[in-house]
Description:
Mean pLDDT is 81; it is low at 1-9, 401-405 and 435-442. β11 (399-401) and β12 form a beta hairpin. By secondary structure, this protein is an alpha+beta fold. Strands 1, 6, 7, 8, 9, 10, 13, 14, 15 and 16 form a ten-stranded antiparallel beta sheet that branches. A four-stranded parallel beta sheet has the order 3-2-4-5, with helices on both faces. Strands 11-12 form a two-stranded antiparallel sheet. The chain contains 16 helices and 16 strands.
Amino acid sequence: MSPDLDLTAPGAARSRLRAVLELDGRLFEAAAGRHWPGAERVLPRLSRSANHGVLWFATAAAMAASRTPRARRAAARGLASLGLASLTINTLGKRSVRRARPVLDPVPLVRQLKRQPITTSFPSGHSASAAAFATGVALESPAWGAAVAPVAFSVAVSRVYTGVHFPTDVLAGAALGVGAAFLVRRLVPTRAQVRGPARPRAEAPALPEGEGLVVVANRASGTAERVRALHDALPKAEIVECAPEDVADELAKAAARARVLGVCGGDGTVNAAAVCAWRHGLPLAVLPGGTLNHFAYDLGVEDERHLARAVQHGEAVRVDAGRFATGDTEGLFLNTLSLGVYPELVRARDRWSHRIGGWPAGVLGALRVLRADRHPLEVELGGERRPLWLLFVGNGVYHRMGLAPGRRTDLADGLLDVRVVHGSRRPALRLLAAAVAGPLTRSPAHAAVQVNRLRLTGLAPGTPLAYDGEVTAVSDEVVLEKLPEALTVYRPLDASA
Length: 497
């Protein structure tokens, strides 16, 4: 290679850099001298609104107010991406390249910002934040990303239009913002990335207008709006709204005349419907309507549109159920079953939820339970008697998201996910250590294993057992087992749509 083509030579590098900067300056002057119809009122104000991320925090709040799970996740991912981009800009970007701001002489006074930034020019922090937020939103929800992208692009353009950045500042900032969003996705995968396969597929009736579907809705879950939207999509479906104490009776009546049993409510209501559908051999249609909705969300049904599309096209899968039996009592659980401090937390939460709401009541219940002076639960497990603070059993393996196991990607894996926090004098510290260390740690404080059957003996009379948000009393012996592919449940096979 001839010397004049050797781009690694210092002289060649400086020459190319000088050429880039000259081109950058010419582009800036060309933009300053161009008349942009209608932009004088909009772009300077838009640029100021993005100061300190105010515009994006307001956008995220508006998205969250839509009350759709995907919009809330997209807003959270956008803000996380913005935070990472801003941190990188402020700690590395501005300090690594100390480029002066453009000279404002060629920029018309009407375009200039009232308060000029005092930091260095490269890269553009506003552009990085805009690109990070828009990309983060789009990775979780392409529809919301398409809505946010024009605003983000306009913010980036406004930085050149108002004369505070060169074009390369904006491009570098945007590239950094996009990179931050993808790094966040790598650290915390999107729901589409971690969603398991839609298998095993099952035969289920296709009901184009909902005829034969009877939906029992728990009125206490605040489901009226979702139920109306479902009925608009499936006008021949029968909707039965009832009080919590009447759910079991209405489900039994519905199962006697339904071709498909539907339910709208929280995890406890869905559990009751699953038991009814299992006993009658009916397909189950689940519309999330409670506070947590773990089963519906892990299934891939987030709102009435997902459910309506699945019912209209007869798209369904087989899912496992967990079964517990103690004495003459048996029941199913779709999500989790637990012994120890968690059932006490559920009871404490239920005492306060009608006064202060579900989430605050849960926090208050946790504080009271962990601060109480108590002895660990004594259980005979695997032929050995052990003190326990918590025994957690999941219907399917829960994968770690954040500090604790969060969701399942396979609802037909044939496994019970068993996790134990051993007894000690300080339950709060042990439970926190279990959460931080993750689900599969081999710490002496906690352990995890996957099985398809579990037998617990030596339980004291009246020991509380929680399953899917409900609490019952057990004694002596409890047998837990997996019921593989016990239920047929509607789910859009393209659950990412």
